[in-house]
Task: structure prediction
Amino acid sequence: MNKNTVLKGAFILTLANIITRFTGFFYRIYMNNTIGIEGMGLYQLIMPVYSLCWSITSSGFTTTISKLTAQEKAKHQYGNMGRILKQSLLICTFLSLIISISLYFTADVFATYIIKEQRTIIPLKILALCFPFMSAGSCIRGYFFGIQNSTVPAFSQILEQTVRITAVFFTAEKLVPMGLSYACASAVIGIVAGEIVSFLFVLLLYKRVKIKKGFIKKPSMGVMTSLTTILSMAIPLSSGRCLGALLSTIENILIPQRLGLFSGAKGNPLEIYGSLTGLMMPLIQFPTAFLMAVSITLVPAVSEACAIKNKRRIRDAVNLSVFFTIVVSLCFTAIFAIFPKEVCETVYQEEKLYMLLLKLSPVCPFLYLHITLSGLLNGLGEHIYILKNNVISSIINIIFIYFGMPLYGVDAFILGWIVSLILTSTTSLHRVLKITETKIDIIKCLFYPLICILASALTGRLLFIKIPYSSISTVSIMGGMCIFYIILLIITGCIKKDEILQFAGLKKK
Result:
């Protein structure tokens, strides 16, 4: 897979991610207006459970299928691709059924003694229904990533989000008046409906693509050989992600509990938790629409390059991904740090949340770099290293949450997050550069982009002073600032015009 293939796949996924993130913002605004900030906090208490169950049933297998499919495709072993997918589907479906049944019948115990919020019982029971469809759909999407077809996963993502929002829109009117628990349940119904429809969509496309591409061949890999290959990769990956998700779940459960002990807290701890995790964190994670796309496409790209021992392609992937991550992270860090009031007022009509966004802005560069480097390390087979880093990161967060939040409130959580991300992103970067024998051009990757964003941000700030506030003026000025930033990057030679055309698919390499 060459550089243009990575960019093309990332571009398709970026468009899908941007669409889902934009609709997700409207969805969150609608939910905030419908069930309130406390309701958002209740909903956010359930989401770590969703992430944990996804990690157990499918996270490691999605990456495994993507990587193994790319390797077998590079060797033209199309029969092995089908065998790998089918065996993975059987394993994931079996695991998800166990998880679904367990969660459904223990939801009351889980809500009462672990989450310590009985209003989550009904939403948890509904959530349990989605896991078989979620895990099967994730496996098939991993297959499409492996054959470098990013279009199907992208459309399935948009479809899932559309169904989710539509389901909530039609159910919220009846369920919200019944209380906060049922209002939260309407959001979970949307999750279940989205997962079911998304699974049916990718299943249909898989059958069509398999026949059209001529991937129907007898596998050369034996049943036990393929099973051993899958499990040897999926178990470490799943174990790492399960442990990470478990620690993340502990973090999210502890936050409102420890925040309740903070004497300086203003308002209901669940409302503050809802503002932090339901409104502000999704906002700073919005730029990851691009970076997650790059991370996903990097796994098969680097895996294929490793399979054919093409070191030049690996180094190209590292340089390209790190550079674009730094460029994107600097841009959005500047926006969130310099225009926090305007962003909060434009997106959520809540100017009072701006201090929270301002405090979170230093997280951005390290968070974005962490996402990209995780994709590179996965492609390089460094699953144990990722596990170690994620565990250390979560332990640092939990220490700050447990001991710091009763004394310093949300500031302790943010500081812990920054410390953990600085540690994991810098060590991961060192690991990637060492393994791939890659050297990063500091002048091009950091110095020039930093100068360009400072000039662009200063220009944008001056325009805000001169022009009266409105949502249209805010979006226009920020958009203009980003365009000016790109122009400066082109002038300084950081970005070539041909690379932009290749990225947009308007010019072949």
Q: What stands out?
A: DSSP finds 18 helices and no strands in the chain. The CA atoms of residues 464 and 477 lie 8 Å apart.
